[in-house]
């Protein structure tokens, strides 16, 4: 029995490649989301006194990168820009086995030390932690590259690496499903979600609600019985997305389209851009099979390579054309 299980695990490992541009694209989205958050906000926004915590940044019992400098805004802004540069390097896809832990450290530091409200940083901190086993076993120079097929990939060492990485991807899928499950169940304990009016109050919240332009557009709906459909529909949609964990792989793309429409609508109407980008990265890990690589990435790479080679070729011909000097004369 154990031999059969071992053989099935082995076959699963050698037939599934975890190190593709699918997880690479998701990593880049997570890094870009945090980079956007940092570049458009000063340190004073993230590190300030809040109710119950007069000392900032929060450095109690943690290893935050923001706690490595004095807690004055010059130092914190300096670290912020260092972190921003590191996030750009991470988003570029360079050396995932080096930048994977750095990515988690940055996301963790934002979660434990900064004052944030949209939840994206918490999701990013968990996902980057779960991505570490995949990044540490990914020996590509860039996470956009195709993994080279050579004899060593079928050695015991690489089979173990694959099993570790694939198990991490399963853990990520479970974690993302739990996010939607927890969100839907938690809402059921709120009276406004049960009576169908939660969306009315949420969209008019002065901090997280819609801006005046969009609010005027949807106000007739919010003040009508249709608001119940929006409220309960949100609950059903989140339960539906949790159910994707148990769905056949051939249906994942439909779940992915629905989920992306939900989060991009939130991004546009509520302005939660970085949160939406983080959740897009999470959904790619959740609902896009890791072997189903994004072909558009290779097309972009091919285009830039062809443009670059054309320029080099043109420059070489120009510099080595013996008739050029004659024509100039």
From TrEMBL:
Descriptive protein name: Antimicrobial peptide system SdpB family protein
Keyword Transmembrane: yes
UniProt xrefs under InterPro entries: HTTM-like (IPR011020), Sporulation_SdpB (IPR023894), Sporulation_signal_mat (IPR052964)
GO CC entries: endomembrane system
Location(s), subcellular: Endomembrane system
Transmembrane segments: 81-107, 119-137, 158-181, 226-247, 254-287
Topology in the lipid bilayer: Multi-pass membrane protein
Domain of life of the native organism: Bacteria
Key words, A-Z: Membrane, Transmembrane, Transmembrane helix
Keyword Transmembrane applies: yes
Ranges in coiled-coil conformation: none
Domain (HTTM-like) ranges: 15-291
